[in-house]
Structures are given as structure tokens and as C-alpha cells.
């Protein structure tokens, strides 16, 4: 077990070095979060040997854990800060929320919504065994956001929507940033900025995600 842990740590360091070289990881905060988060805790047992390949991996129920470079792109684009309140749509296995939780620190909080109960349960267990205390996972329609704890400093969506759901824009703080893939499977990663009552968007490039299912999804 100890040998496996050492191997995983070595592979994690190698992956982070590659992500930095490719320009996906640009800040010390994101680098530190990646180094501190064991991706092997968030993938199925039979895929643990592939935990540090820069590729999406199946986690069941037709869902995937995102490729590390995409998680890095999204974390850097959101300009996450200590103490922020963040809403995640699409918990998956919990890995992305774990990375974000490390960046925003103990005084920050990640609220995550997952529509598939079994995945939400899996994510909660993965978060627990990784020793993370500032992530809370809910089962529901993520396209509706999570009104109870709004407004949020940052919102990000890990599945592709036909358009930016209005409830998410409404639940975003002013000023605040919202990051979402728009399209079906092959989509554009859109960064929405709310500032002084005005909304602006920027296309960060092409990406591929499973579809967002719900009232404002597919």
C-alpha cells in the first residue's frame, strides 16, 4: 500500500509538471491544489492505475471525471480566491470540487449539485476519505442552481448546456464569474462576468462535456 502511495505521489508530481509546461497550470495556488489532491481517490478501483493520465475517465452512469488539464483550465479561468463561496453544477466523483476546495481554503465553501444520487453518495465518500471539510453535496436539478445559499462568488458547470441557465446568472454575485460549457458534447467554454449590473461573456475555446440534464438543460 505504501509503495502504491509513493508511486501515486510521483505520478501526481509528473502530471503537474506536464500541466505547467503546457500552460494549463499558471498560478501557485492551482499547482498546490493539484499536488495536494489525490486523484486516485476519485476514480473507480479498476482505473486507479490510470488516475494520472491526462484524460477523462468513466465513473459510471454514463458520466466521467474530467481530464486534469480541463480542471486546471477551469480553475485558472475562475480566478478563485481564499474564502469564496462557490457553486459547482455536476459533482461527478468529487475531484473538481476537491481541487477548488483546496484553492479557496478552509474559510471558503463549495456547494455542489449532482442529479444522480449514486454519484452524489460516491462523491461525498471520496471527499470524506480525502479529509476535505468545506464541500457540501446536494442531489437535484443543477440547471436550477442552489437558491438556498445564493449568491455565489463563483459558479462553474461541469456539463454542457444548450445556453447559460438564467437561475445560475441570477444566483451569481455582482461582481462574480460563471464558467459553463455551451453546446452539445462539443461545445464552447464560456466565461460570464457580472459587474455593476452588466453581463459580459468571453469564449475560452472548444471543449467536450457530457450534457447538462434538467429544466434549463437538455
Describe this structure in words.
The structure is a single chain. The chain is α/β, with parallel strands linked by helices and 218 residues long. The protein contains six helices and nine strands. It has one domain: Rossmann fold (3-Layer(aba) Sandwich). It has a seven-stranded mixed β-sheet with strand order 5-4-3-6-7-8-9. Strands 1-2 form a two-stranded antiparallel ribbon. The longest helix is centred in the N-terminal third of the chain and has 20 residues. The radius of gyration is 16 Å and the shape is globular.
Looking at this protein, list some descriptive labels.
globular, alpha/beta, two-stranded antiparallel sheet, Rossmann fold, 218 residues, 6 helices, 7-stranded mixed β-sheet
End-to-end span in angstroms?
43 Å
Q: What is the name of the CATH architecture?
A: 3-Layer(aba) Sandwich
CATH topology: Rossmann fold
Report strand %: 25-35%
Give the spatial strand order of the biggest sheet. 5-4-3-6-7-8-9
Mind telling me the CATH class?
Alpha Beta
> What percent of residues adopt helix (DSSP H or I)?
25-40%
Domains, number: 1
What is the makeup of the main sheet?
Answer: 7 strands, mixed
List the secondary-structure elements in sequence, H or E: HHEEHEHEHEEHEEE
CATH homologous superfamily?
Vaccinia Virus protein VP39
On the 0-100 scale, what is the average pLDDT? 96
Shape: globular
Secondary structure: number of strands: 9
Helical stretch tally: 6
**Low-pLDDT ranges:** none
Structural class: alpha/beta
Taking all Cα atoms into account, the compactness measure Rg is 16 Å
Amino acid at each position: 500500500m505504501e509503495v502504491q502511495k509513493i508511486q501515486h505521489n510521483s505520478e501526481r508530481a509528473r502530471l503537474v509538471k506536464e500541466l505547467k509546461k503546457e500552460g494549463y497550470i499558471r498560478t501557485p495556488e492551482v499547482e498546490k491544489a493539484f499536488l495536494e489532491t489525490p486523484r486516485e481517490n476519485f476514480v473507480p478501483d479498476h482505473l486507479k492505475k490510470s488516475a494520472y493520465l491526462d484524460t477523462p475517465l468513466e465513473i459510471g452512469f454514463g458520466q466521467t471525471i474530467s481530464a486534469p488539464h480541463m480542471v486546471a483550465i477551469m480553475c485558472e479561468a475562475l480566478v478563485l480566491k481564499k474564502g469564496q463561496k462557490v457553486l459547482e453544477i455536476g459533482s461527478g466523483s468529487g475531484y473538481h470540487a476537491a481541487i477548488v476546495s483546496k484553492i479557496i481554503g478552509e474559510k471558503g465553501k463549495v456547494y455542489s449539485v449532482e442529479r444522480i444520487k449514486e454519484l452524489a453518495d460516491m462523491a461525498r465518500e471520496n471527499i470524506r476519505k480525502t479529509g476535505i471539510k468545506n464541500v457540501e453535496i446536494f442531489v437535484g436539478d443543477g440547471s436550477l442552481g442552489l437558491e438556498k445559499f445564493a449568491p455565489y462568488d463563483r459558479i462553474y458547470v461541469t456539463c454542457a448546456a444548450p445556453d447559460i441557465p438564467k437561475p445560475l446568472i441570477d444566483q451569481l454575485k455582482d461582481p462574480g464569474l460563471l464558467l459553463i460549457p455551451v453546446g452539445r458534447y462539443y461545445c464552447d467554454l464560456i466565461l460570464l462576468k457580472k459587474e455593476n449590473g452588466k453581463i459580459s461573456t468571453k469564449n475560452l475555446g472548444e471543449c467536450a462535456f457530457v450534457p447538462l440534464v434538467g429544466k434549463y438543460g437538455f
